[in-house]
Every structure is written in C-alpha cells, then in structure tokens.
Amino acid sequence: MTRDLLGRHRAVLPDWLALYYEEPLEITHGEGRHVWDAAGNKYLDFFGGILTTMTAHALPEVTKAVSEQAGRINHSSTLYLNRPMVELAERVAHLSGIPDARVFFTTSGTEANDTALLLATTHRRSNTVLAMRNSYHGRSFSTVGITGNSGWSPTSLTPLQTLYVHGGVRTRGPYAHLDDRDFIDACVADLKDLLGHTRAPAALIAEPVQGVGGFTSPPDGLYAAFREVLHERGILWIADEVQTGWGRTGEHFWGWQAHGRGGPPDIVTFAKGIGNGMSIGGVIARAEIMNCLDANSISTFGGTQVTMAAGLANLNHLLEHDLQGNARRVGGLLIERLRGVAAQVPHVREVRGRGLMIGIELTRPGTDEAAPEAASAVLEEARAGGLLIGKGGGHSTSALRIAPPMSLTVAEAEEGAAILDRALRSI
C-alpha cells in the first residue's frame, strides 16, 4: 500500500518535494509522543512534524476545541468580527513583551516572515534587509531571497537586496576560535563595517536558534549587541520565532529573550507549535509598524475560527502544564545523555541546543568536513529502532535535529537516547 501511495505521490506532486527515508513513511495516527505508520509500526516522535506538534499528538483539549468550533462555524475571513481570533491575539500580544502590540495571523511561518518583510520595508522605505548566514525563513519568493542557506534557496532572483551578517553559527566561520565576548565584539565590528558600505537597511531578520541550519545559535547577547548598533540607525529587528517560540528552548519563552537586555524586538514572527498541527502563523509588531500600510488588506484563511480555537486551547495547555519548564528539565537531561554518547562516536563533532531543540552535528572523523551520508544512515537506523528524528545543517545536511513534543517524559527521553546511541554507533 505504501509503495502504491509513493507512486501516486511521484506522479502528481513536484520532484523537489523532499521525502525522508529510502522507503518513505506514511504516518496514520498519533497519541502523546508516539505515532504509527500504515503498517502498524509504532515510533517515538522526536521531530513533531518539524517542531509543529508542540504539546502532544491528539491532545484532548485541542481535539475538543476544534470539534466544538467546527460544529458552529469553521471560517468567515477577516472581513467579519471573529471572537476566537481576538482572544488569541490578546493572549499573544500580552505574552510578546512588545509594547502596544498588534497581531496579524497568517497560515504559515513563511507567510508570517513575508508579512514582516512587507511591514519593515514599508515602514523604513528601504528594500535592503540584513539576514544571518546559515539562516532559513521560508519558501516564498521573498523569504527564499533572504535565506542564507544555499540548500534551501532555489533561485538568486529576489525583490530584496540582502546583506548577510556573521554570528548565527558559534563553532564555524572566521570567528569560531574566539571566546564568547570576543566573538560578539568581532561580529558587531563586522556589522558596523557592513553598514558603512550601504544605505541604511530596513531590518535585520534573525532566528535566535537557526532551525533548518542545524539548531545553531550565537552566544547569548549577540542580538542585543546588534540591536544597539541597529537602533542608532533606526533599523528594525525582526525575531523569527517560528521554531523557537512558546518555551521550546526551556530557558526562555521566546528565543529573543536570551538577547533581551535592550528590550523586545520591533517585530516577532511565529507559527508551527502554537497550532499543534493546525495552520497558524503570525506577526507581532508595535502599532506604529503594524499600521504603516496605507492600502486595504484582508486575510482569507489567516485567523480562521477553527484554527484560532485550536491555538487558544493549545496555548492554555502549554501554560497550565508548564511545558517550558518541562522542556528545560527533560531537555537538559537529554542533552547530557547525548553528549555522553557523542564522546564515544568519532563522527559526532558537536551536540548543541537548548531545551527540547537539540542538534547533533556529524562530520568525517578527524575533520570538520560535513558527513551528510552519515546523517542519512543514522536517520534510517533510528527509524528502524522506532525513533523519528530530523536533519538539517549549513552547506551540507549533516546535522540531526531532535525536537520532540514539549510534554516529553524522562522515560521517553531515555528511550530515545538509547535508540540514538545504537544508531550513532552503527555509522
């Protein structure tokens, strides 16, 4: 049955639509931190639909909210008052830390970042954008244009002028040998030099932890130091929290808070986990920025009632059960367990991450050369052992990405670590 579905998939869907595994997997249902495939095999899910199943599969509160809302009305567009949308916007605005915040809902992180770029370039009257090397911000024309990862950038054509900044990857690049303080100073000096050679950009867009880039991040405080430079010139700071938001990093509710000494960003984008599988994205910005557009606009599907009901139920569950605290505690245990394993596996260059957002970078032993074939082999071996994980990483896809639902238990973390132990040793 799976082979038949794969044939049908290839006959009608684009060739560039990536599929994991030599024998692709059809997931039919899930519960908690587990999913099942069409053959009845059970897997511990350490990737959550690309960090999207944030709380749990088939979370009863979300299922109930969706069912009840669907029984009333699914959709009306933003042309009509929408109580669930207003209620979720109020919660998100309050949690954002942005003063006088306004919230606009979209259907994806790509669309959220697209909107943030529209707002920033309109507000600043500039089409120049600063982005980070090794970054990823979506698959639309404008977000591909600012993505600093060649593996996810299929065209050089773009409506924006993009300038790439150092700092998103701590352990590679020209400043990797420096200590944290000197690393930040060098990146700030590079930013100042870059700004001396161009007209003032609209904004810097940055992921606090780079997702597709392999869960890399700078030292805490880098973006705060950047912001001091940007603020002097009126340049906006956009924090792409599509993967880092809602407490996944454990230490903070938003990833930007690791760099927050100068206050919140001007714009925050979010998506993925807030919907727990429903299509929700959004932009949070100060009112003067959000309201800078001088033409009419609506959203047909952004903020639709059934997705807003799901988001509210999911957010309430996350806060009431302190899943941020659970990500910090269980994620910390999992990282230490994996570092113990990595010390005995020559292919592992680094285990990095925060909370339940963990990357394992693989290289050819004794070198810094990426080993994408090793990452693929571990992905396959982990699946054979009953564990689903992801891949990512800079110029070559050689980092394993681990991001389970934030309700992961200690026992499940130990089980997943044991499977990864065997998979890594099998390279």
Characterize the structure shown.
The mean pLDDT is 96. The strands form 3 sheets. The protein has a 7-stranded mixed beta sheet with strand order 4-10-9-8-7-5-6, with helices on both faces. It is built from 13 helices and 15 strands. Helix 7 runs parallel beside helix 8 and helix 12 (372-384) packs across helix 13. 37% of the residues lie in helices and 16% in strands. The longest helix is centred in the last third of the chain and has 20 residues, at 323-342. The protein starts with a helix and ends with a helix. With 427 residues, it is an alpha/beta fold.
Describe the structure concisely.
With 427 residues, the chain is of the alpha/beta class.
| Share of residues in strands | 15-25%
What is the chain-wise order of helices and strands? HEEEHHHEHEHEHEHEEEHHHEEHEEEH
Shape: globular
Radius of gyration: 21 Å
Average of pLDDT: 96
Structural class: alpha/beta
Overall strand count: 15
Q: Supply the number of helical segments.
A: 13
Query: Approximately how much helix is present in the residues?
Result: 25-40%
How far is it from the N-terminal to the C-terminal residue, by CA? 30 Å
The major pleated sheet works out as: 7 strands, mixed
Major sheet: arrangement of strands:
4-10-9-8-7-5-6
What are the low-pLDDT stretches, counting only 5+ consecutive residues below 50? none
